[in-house]
Amino acid sequence: MTETRRYRVMHRTRYDYDDVVTSSYGRCHLQPRNLPGQRVLDAEVVIDPEPGDFSSGVDIYGNVDNYFHVRTPHQRLEVTGTSTVDVDPVDQALLESGAATAAWEFARPSGRSGARAVEYQLDLYPPEVTDAVVEYSARVFVPQRPLAEAVVDLTHRIFSDFTYKSGSTEISTKVDTVMKRRQGVCQDFARVAIACLRSQGLAARYVSGYLATDPPPGAERIYGADASHAWAAVWLPGDRWIAFDPTNDVLVGERHVTVGWGRDYEDVAPLRGVIYTESRSSKIDVSVDVAPLPLASEAST
After folding, report:
1. Chain-centre distance of CA 291, in angstroms?
2. Which CATH code for domain 90-252?
3. What confidence tens digit (pLDDT) does each residue in 23-62 have?
4. Are 179 and 193 in contact (CB under 8 A)?
5. Distance (Å, rounded) from C-alpha 288 to C-alpha 52?
6. DSSP 21
7. What CATH number belongs to 5-86+269-299?
8. Strands 163-164 and 183-184
9. CA distance between the termini of the chain
10. Crossing angle of helices 186-199/147-161, nearest 10°?
11. Which of 167, 181, 226, 236 has the greatest number of CB atoms lying within 10 Å of its CB?
């Protein structure tokens, strides 16, 4: 039986410059969200050098974001987010609800009840919903098919039809390019899924977070060897969402830690900023670790 899991998450980004940086401005999404099915026990973001200004707030999508300004001259900048999170298994009750088992056509946002989801229904600019996307999604979203069933099928099709290849794409790579090459990474597969859903008039959002991975049998965990992850979610009437991970052919559950969501990657980038420097080159090193921890009940036994 699948049960709730607890994790200690660390996401560290280090920039090294070949000349002094006199000022760094940054914005980061590194603190997980409190959600039904996910509880944040503690979370913090540490900047080195210590920033002169630091603030924490909530963006228009409800994600926790942090702003900082480092005024101390530096040649290395390190931003580290750490948190402890409890995550529940897949919500079977949601999958068996009337909204999830009804025909997918009924999940198109409409009226006052769907007002908050309409933004996620719209295509991006430049458009991501191409003829290839429409043709691909039409094989999944046949008339009157139950929504949950169609989502599971879409998840499996992308997993089967596309090849995961690290380094094969960039942040700027468009969905149409991924459709032609049939390869990419997690953010590409999430964006393909989102474009498919939007092509059918459904509301879909891009979700950023982490995936807990287990080492091969007999091997020890390698600290910092994990990575940030991305998946998609589709809206249901009643303002609920089914989140699914086409990279791994699973619905999102106890191995997924949600940090934030938006219409696309740009809304929830882990870290971005502006620097003032004469530096001509820089090096970035990203280290992510999602370490399982015992729950209180397990620790006491």
Report:
1. 18
2. 3.10.620.30
3. 999 999 999 999 999 999 999 999 999 999 999 999 999 9
4. no
5. 26
6. E
7. 2.60.40.2250
8. parallel
9. 19
10. 140
11. 236
